[in-house]
Amino acid sequence: MDKIKRIKELITLINKLNYHYYVLDDPLIADREYDFIYDELVNLEKETGIVLPDSPTKQVGDTVLEGFKKHTHIAKLYSLDKCNNFQELESWINGIKKDFGDIDYSVEYKYDGLKMTITYENGELICAATRGNGYVGEDVTNQVLTIKSVPLRIPYKGKVVVEGEAMMKLSVLNEYNKTALEPLKNARNAAAGAIRNLDPKVTGSRNLSMFFYGVPYIEGKKFDTYLEMIQFLKDNDFPMYDYLKMEKSVSKIEELIDEIDKDKKNLDILIDGVVIKVNDFKIREKLGVTAKFPKWAVGYKFEAQELTTKLNQVVWQVGRTGKLTPIAEVDPVELAGATIKRATLNNYGDILRKGVKINSKVFVRRSNEVIPEILKVATVDESCYDVPKPTVCPSCGELLVEEGANLFCTNYYGCPEQIEDRINHYCQRNAMNIEGISGKTITMLRKNLNVKSVLDLYSIKKEDLLRLEKFAEKKAEKLINQIERSKNPKFANFIFALGINGVGEKTAKDLAKHFATLDDLKSANLEDLTQIDEVGLIIAQNIYDYFNDEKNIDLLSGLASVGLNIEYPTQEITQNTTFTGKTIVLTGDLENFTRSELTATLESYGAKVTSSVSKKTDLVIVGENAGSKLNKAKELGVQIMYEPELLEKLK
Ligand SMILES: [Zn+2]
């Protein structure tokens, strides 16, 4: 009896979750948690033999959104059975092995996008639809027409339905967010939201991609293997993500899964697992299907990166720029192999925007090498209340200043947390690389030796250190040596060490490449700074402000007076016997290069490119319509090179 009650509870719950997930595109819980609840229902139904009429297990998935025409699929679209660990994968493969022996399995990415079908007749695209519940989906033809890589015409003339996934590439998402009023947070939701937007213009603006992997229906052709099916898709110009491997043994498949899991962060698309399919269609036929899944394929799901938990409290950290960062303390959850107790909320505006409250359930995400983050609120009830907005600095008590979404403590010289964070940043390995100076040591230096800025580090004496707790002769000497050694930093490391807002390691390297010296960087204006590819207006402004701030001007001259000696990079030259060390003149119109491109290339070989031909010229490169310079070169007997030879020498 209790079981039936539980079944009813689960049905109500899942139907509510489905509505939020599929119709509102606003999930209440993480996918992985949904799967657990769903599995519980499936198991209870199996156990009791009772499947109630409104059970979501009778449906494969989505609800058709109002406003879209319905599209009935010619062939039912199955979803994919899943496995969550290697044991489940092994038992699936061993089950097949009993009857069919060692056979070929394809291994592919499991895309985290929106599944769709497209129908072609007489070689023309006639209809595109979402998967919907597997029988009926939404007609999204106008939306799909905005995806440029989807072919409108294909060579194959029979009626055919192809299956694939609409996705937003991560690089496209980044690009989109650079100018978007409402930045998109998740590539999957961005793609789904774009396809299921009634206005195709919105779809078009998201610049989606689509990758294909299946042919659920085809007239006038039969495939014997999955590889043949894939070849058919290739022959008909359907875009694919280039990853497909064939393996026989389960251990090899597991190796591939581990490899993909490790590499997935380098991909330009979101994947949430790996799909393994039987290659041979005769075997597929014999294995058959259940009500929902084919028995010849499984999706291996990677460990969850996202879960919900309760937010208990928010504490505020003061960073090196004086900016306050709210850190949420949450009920501990296990996420991708780590226990998460705290997660960042970026700034005060972020708390308001996400609607996060004390006691609310929130989504926590952990991505590679990044501190866990609160994504958004999941549920709010009566016990919830607003996160208190601090008015004074938690570290020094100074009144806070509000700037846009951020709160700042402006007590630059007196705020302990700010001071320590600046020193900490300055000392880290990729900055000045001062080893053996932990957070605790920095606190001690500040409290006992009155170290209040990175400049003060350079006046610490060994005997001062010896007065401190746990500082013996050796340790003190080592730290003094480390500080001394840090006076000769590489240019990029020094720029990073300054801790300019928004200037990470990568930007510091770009700046060091672009500017020859610190003085050049200091005197750069906004225009100079924004010429660097990766530097936008905001970061340019931060850099400009930094070097024009009295406090920093003092700091830099102070560092110079203690003997800072920056090591500047020497131009790296690729040796090329034809060009290295030569003085070269370009003339005429070249077919394969612009002037500036070729100049840059030649300079990278250590050549000097000048504009007029003289006795000092070693080589004249000649294109179409060359005039007086060519004549002059001939007169002086300077070596002449035409474009075909140039291409040869540059290889
Ligand atoms: Zn403060």
How would you characterize this protein structure?
With 651 residues, the protein is of the alpha+beta class. It folds into 6 domains: 2-58, Helix Hairpins (Orthogonal Bundle); 70-301, 2-Layer Sandwich (D-amino Acid Aminotransferase, Chain A, domain 1), CATH 3.30.470.30; 309-408, Beta Barrel (OB fold (Dihydrolipoamide Acetyltransferase, E2P)); 416-485, DNA polymerase, domain 1; 491-561, 5' to 3' exonuclease, C-terminal subdomain (DNA polymerase, domain 1); 583-650, Rossmann fold (3-Layer(aba) Sandwich). The protein contains 25 helices and 24 strands. A 5-stranded mixed beta sheet has the order 2-11-10-3-9. A 5-stranded antiparallel beta sheet has the order 14-13-12-16-17. Helix 1 (2-23) runs antiparallel to helix 2 and helix 12 (416-427) crosses helix 13 (439-449). The protein starts with a helix and ends with a helix. The model is unreliable at 60-64 (pLDDT under 50). Zinc ion binds next to loops.
